[in-house]
What does this fold into?
Amino acid sequence: MTNRTQIRTQRISFVLALAVIIYTATDTYLFTCHGINIMKVTTPLILGLVVTILLCGLLQRSFYKWLTKNPIDFSFGWQSPLVFDSDFKIKDNCANEAQTIEQTNDSVIDNYDTLLENIKKKEAERQVEVMNAIREYVTIKTAPYLSKEAISILISNIEYMACGRYDLYKPIRSNIDNPLRSPGLRHLAWNVGERLNVPLVKRAEFIKASFPHELINATPEYLRLNLRDTVTSQIPIDVPDKGDFRFHLDTDNDDSQ
It folds into this structure.
């Protein structure tokens, strides 16, 4: 780009120089041979041309600065029909896309009740499976220490804990000749509450309310902090596998001594 500019400038300079030489030679020839002085005619023309060029340059620069600071829309609100056609096509495509999205949303919304019902059904089925596993586990693990009636009340208390009906707990007592002790009861509360996703404080309140005689000297805060400890007990800690709720009854041996 720079080379082209230099070549163009050299050509213009050459033409100007050649014009000056031709003008000088012509003026000299006419004045010497014919006594004609063309300077009287050309001088005013040249001066007028120079002044016009300079004035045009000054006016152009002035108008440019003014328009830069004060832009004016010379279209007077007129727009090319091609713009309207392009805009129309874009709007038409957007309208079609919006209609497609709206139809898809309507289809999903129409199925909302069905989807919600399926989700609730699956949750209910899983909850039933969890409670059945808990009933089996509690019956097997507490049968040596509780009567049939006491096991039934304990399972009801667990169901109340799962439902948040903490005011319906009923107290029970383990067998006098083979009672449950605090470590085993704490572990039982932790194991069951872990399958139900119940907070530790609620697990502690549940086991305290269910066995007030065996836990008479244990405060709810103490129980909450010691639900999952490593103390040897009649009912050991049973940590569920990731994503599973089942108990390890086949490998869960009694730790009592």
User: Anything to note?
Assistant: The radius of gyration is 50 Å. The longest helix spans residues 2-34. Confidence is low (pLDDT under 50) at residues 80-88.
